Please model this.
Amino acid sequence: MADQHTSGSSGSVRPAGPKEHITISYAGFARPWAAWISHQLEQQGHGTTLLRWDPEADTALVAELSGLLEAEGRLLMVLDDWYFRLGPKTPEEWTDALREVVPPHAERFAAVSVAAQSLPATAALLRPADLRDLDAREARRRVLQRLGVGAPRRTPDEPAPGEPRFPNNPPEVWNIPRRNNQFTGRDPVLEELHGKLAGSHAGSGPPLETRIALYGTSGVGKSQIAAEYAHRFGNDYDVVWWISATNRGAAREQLAELATRLGLPVGRELGDRIRAVHEALRTGRPYRRWLLVFDSADDMEQIEDLIPDGRGHVLITTLTRDWSGSGSAQEIEVPPFTRVESVAYARRRAPRLTPLEADLLSDAVQDLPLLLAQTAAWLDANPMAPKEYIELIRRGEPSLVGIRISSDYPMAFQTSWAITLNTLRERSPAAVELLKLFAFFAPDAIPVPMLANARRGDLPEHLADLAAEPIIWNTALRRLTESTAVRLDYQVSQDSDPAVETAQMHRLYHRFLRSDMTDDERDLMSQTACRVLVTADPQNPADTRCWERYAELIPHLEPAGVLDSADPAVQQLLLNCVEYMRVRGEYRVGLRLCEQFMSRWRSRLEPTQRTLLVLTHQHANMLRRLGRYREAEAVGSAVVDLLTAEREPVDPDLLRAQDGLAGTLMALGSYDEAHALFDAVWRAYVGLLGPEAPRTLSSRHNLGCVLALLGRYEEALVTHREVLAYRERELRARHYLTLNAGAAHARTLRLLGRYRDAGSSQELNARLHLQVMGPHTPQTLRSEHDLALCLRRSGEPARAGELMADLVERSRRVQGPRHPETLSVRADYATFLREHGDLGQARDLADEVVEAYRALVGDAHPYTVGTLGNAGLVRAGFGELSEALEAAERSLGGMTRAVGPDHPWTLGCALNAAAARSRVDDEDGAVELGRDTLERAKIMLGQTHPLTLSAKTALAEDLRAQRRGQEAAKLEQEAISQLAETLGAEHPHTLSARRRRRPYWDFEPQPV
Model:
């Protein structure tokens, strides 16, 4: 017996009659029932003590039962399938003990049954009330009736916050592996874990920790403890979610799946769904109590960013101390079994063992749970005398049974596994071959249906014969579970005989199986696994309907040997998987795969070999999408230089490489170089494929984007208008490429100052994006961002502000807080707040954006320079005139160097710099700069562009300050008349000019 938890009555509830104290005895598995019953009794005003039933193997059961009588008050025994099996104690011992102890103390003993199996006949002495398959109301009534403590004082249908959940009502969201019915002991670790996460008992105050790392050597039972904790304490939570964290890609898929189970309104993008999950867990909506288990998270760098924040709990199992060393989690070290636990487990797993034999076996395997499970399972299935088997293990001579073993593994492991394999080979040779093939798939989720449904030619003949006969196939699978450390998970199905969905194998056995094979065996199994994966490849990574299958394939690429295969079909599988990760937005995993393949093959393949070339291109893609622009440029430039020297100018590989490099140059702010490349690629595609080919149109769209970035708005408008016309003609209006072209066209209209036309087009475009792609895809966010800017420029600040605030939050969730497109939304929201909202918030946000751009692209990039100018306008709003002037002048100088003196961005910076000079009474400097700005704007943008007219009204104000009223009045009247004609008499720009409010210019980072 162990671990008492005593409570008094709770709240202001008082019992109908005299209070009683009740001690609740339960096996660890039944803790949810014990906690729920305790709470129901306390609600009636009774005190309770929870007493975990854990009889010692070498103590007579009569003594253990008699020891219960020492507890306070009456005894309520919660009888489940485990209560009578702990110790272990035989049925005969139970019969004798119950007959001796219960009758003399019948008034103190009571019981309830939650067992799924029949209780021993002698349990009738306890007259247990059956609580199985009941609702909470009836179960409560039976508990109270059995104890004779009166009717319930209240009978709510749902638990109040913090109350234990009724055990027959599991957590709302749950995906924990099925419970290990052989789980034994580990109560100290489980109680320490529960104490740190939930407090030592109810009312003990806040939890000590919310992130715990279970650390220990391989095979010590970390995953089993985590699973048992989830089962034993799962009713404390609303969400209990298990993530296999060996592979980053698979872990992200499993975390993203939680978005659907939580009912979150998200699209198909993986990053979108993960960020939505993080936000839901952080805010506690829709569920406040949650537990996430990250199993086998040995590579902290690959998994750390998946760990959510919030008031819920995270449990990590790991072989390393990185989590605790970095301060990311509190560590609990998991030791091997105690000898008492080892003996109890061995006797439960192999009932024929005597206590002495179980002790000798435990000593031989050094109390390591994984080895004990393996050896006890073998003894249970085979007739060899235990002492003989234990002696073989102690002697450590696996060669005696014909097995070649690596010396890297513990001797007890080597010998026990050798005996197991030898026995399995004698009884089921096909099962051994299947086990070897399993070792070439990810151990956490071996795709059994994929193997069963493989083409006959993909498998060796003996395995093909095995897969062709379902009965023989399933028999082989059962042999593996009976004799080895393989565990099967079955499909959720209405069938009476559901199929196996996946198999799981401990990583220690997984590694050992591979090391135990000859080179020829490894090559054969690797080739087989690769063929199976190739057959399962849908060959269409851009089709969202195929994404689930690609997510299933990714974890198996490395163990199958895909990265080492020279087979063109296998390499195409790799290319398809990388392309899937690119279109899905899984850039970090895609980058890692590219780098792993290239590190293996760069020295063995020509740089222009197709697979290496495509993966190098994808490598640059992934780097660029991760914001690592300089690295992407280096990779892209090297490929372009190589292909330029070897290929024709219209070679498709060269054009693809040039297009990718141009995208990186555009992100870096090298717009002239990007334009030259995009223009050359587009012209080459026109000659090679024709003007309306998909690649040609995509290249021309890119050309239009860089023209806009160069400030050549009229040329960009013509380009986007023609691309849009092609898209509308060749594709449906709701196709995502058509929508993207429409957004680019409307954006260019806005940049030209045609606000009414832009707003009308963008309203429809944003509405279609929401309907077709949902609210959380990056393309929809860009479209709605453009709409918010149109609303602001059209004089609808309320709608613009509401949409902009929503976009800041959505973009942060979908793309991350420092993603370039999130920064552009935040930059525009800062300028909006400066004009229409909170000046203090605007200042903080503007400064954050400047620093973020500085870290992303450097001090000299136009986006850093432009947002620095925006921050200067906020300084002016606070009256910090010298700081505002410094920022404005720095922004003007930096933008002139970055894009030239005539670029619209430079003209906007000049407009703001002239205003800053005017504020410090430098009228001459303001007029000089204002005249130059106006003349350049007329040439670059035209006489009636809003920026030109702003420069005209600003110059008029500065001329008035010099007492040159006649010239000022003429300019002012011209500007007001032109504004009324182009934008309307009631447009905010027109009204501001009439009221002589100094115009300003906001820098708006454009999407690249």
